[in-house]
Amino acid sequence: xxxxxxxxxxxxxxxxxxxxxxxxxxxxxxxxxxxxxxxxxxxxxxxxxxxxxxxxxxxxxxxxxxxxxxxxxxxxxxxxxxxxxxxxxxxxxxxxxxxxxxxxxxxxxxxxxxxxxxxxxxxxxxxxxxxxxxxxxxxxxxxxxxxxxxxxxxxxxxxxxxxxxxxxxxxxxxxxxxxxxxxxxxxxxxxxxxxxxxxxxxxxxxxxxxxxxxxxxxxxxxxxxxxxxxxxxxxxxxxxxxxxxxxxxxxxxxxxxxxxxxxxxxxxxxxxxxxxxxxxxxxxxxxxxxxx
Length: 292
Known about the structure:
single chain, 292 residues, Serine Threonine Protein Phosphatase 5, Tetratricopeptide repeat, Lysozyme
């Protein structure tokens, strides 16, 4: 009798453990946490702290963090290039990275620009990952201008240039004067409501348009917790439609659009900053729907 009772208690305890374990979710590292980790590793390689000193490895790691919008990593890259720390001094690249950091309010970056002068260099290749270059081979001169623009400003928003360029290609095919039947305008095809929402006064100005689109992408990434498929669907059909259907809406245009974006970006997740906006109120329902 006692043995049977112990068995019942053991089964109940096991069930309780399983229920508790199922209820625990391990949060994915935030954008800031990922960037901080990369920057910490970069610093170790730069100074030879616990690892063999390797400035080139440090620059690669700093650049990945810089691409995520980390101002401290951007400043560190500027400092390395300004001082020729283990590589050839390059004031133009130094100014480029100091400018990125200064625009995000880094306290020392603006001061360093007094010594390097304004940024005139093209965005370095490390900000536009290898796969991204393969996705946009042999661009025309006009397309290259857009690529350079995106590579330059995307890190300020913590957006991988490749995702933004995938959106631009699908939306306007790199045409800054494009207008859709729904009055979406410019490179990233901002409708008037979106332009107003993200303070875009001149939607046909390439930089204003791209900045507005990047701000919207940053918002969508936080709202859908970095899920690229949902972000792409929302960019095409609106976040309310994605919430309504708890996933990609059943619109042929939207589903084809999502395939295009995924085909270019080739990643299912993107780092995001949860401080931008609270996640979708339908997030739990979206997860359940996907698990069915």
